Amino acid sequence: MASLIVDGYNVIHAWPSLKRLMSTASLEDARDELVRRVAVMGLITGESVTVVFDAHHSSAMTNSEETVEGVRVVFTRKGHSADHAIERLAYGASNRGEVITVATSDRFQSDLVRGMGGAVISAPELERRVIEAEQEMTRRVKRYQ
Q1: In this structure, are residues 68 and 41 in contact, taking their beta carbons and an 8 Å threshold?
Q2: Domain edges within the chain
Q3: Count of Cβ atoms closer than 10 Å to residue 115 Cβ
């Protein structure tokens, strides 16, 4: 199985549309939009998608996790970074023999994932792939109308 792990805040800050949404609406709206958009990509590609966010403004002592539109959404516990959670997820997936891709523009994170045998795509590349998936979804919907 192929898995995509998304560095949530890294992507939000890299995509102009999400960065704008964060400043005009809220951080929660930007997170929701990111999850909604990568969910479409997961449907089209068949990849298992996980989005990881730091819990900067939370006092939670454990990671929280939920599934939204088929996307696993992970918030790290207080004092832990998304980078560490992504590394653990990528390591676990690679040990299970999964094909793993991490979407981040963080250079250090990219080097670690590549060292584990995973692939890395930048936030702009993820956006390009999401747009392609959204276009494919539109074509499929029109075909069935």
Answers
A1: no
A2: 2-138
A3: 9
Q: Are strands 48-53 and 64-68 parallel, antiparallel or unpaired?
A: unpaired
Sign of the alpha-carbon torsion through 69, 72, 77, 82: negative
DSSP assignments along 53-107, one per residue: E--TT---SS-EEEEETTEEEEEPPTT--HHHHHHHHHHHHHHTT-EEEEE---H
Measured distance CA(80)–CA(82) in Å, rounded: 7
Please give the CATH architecture assigned to the domain spanning 2-138: 3-Layer(aba) Sandwich (3.40)
Q: What is the pLDDT along the chain (145 residues), one digit of tens a residue?
A: 899 999 999 999 999 999 999 999 999 999 999 999 999 999 999 999 999 998 755 555 556 889 999 999 999 987 788 888 999 999 888 888 889 999 999 999 999 999 888 999 999 999 999 999 999 999 999 998 7
Percent helix, strand and coil across the chain, each rounded to 5? 55, 20, 25
Q: Side chain identity at 21, as an amino acid letter?
A: L
> Parallel, antiparallel, or unpaired for β 64-68 and 71-75?
antiparallel
Q: Name the pTM for this structure.
A: 0.91
Give the whole-angstrom CA distance, residue 77 versus residue 49.
20
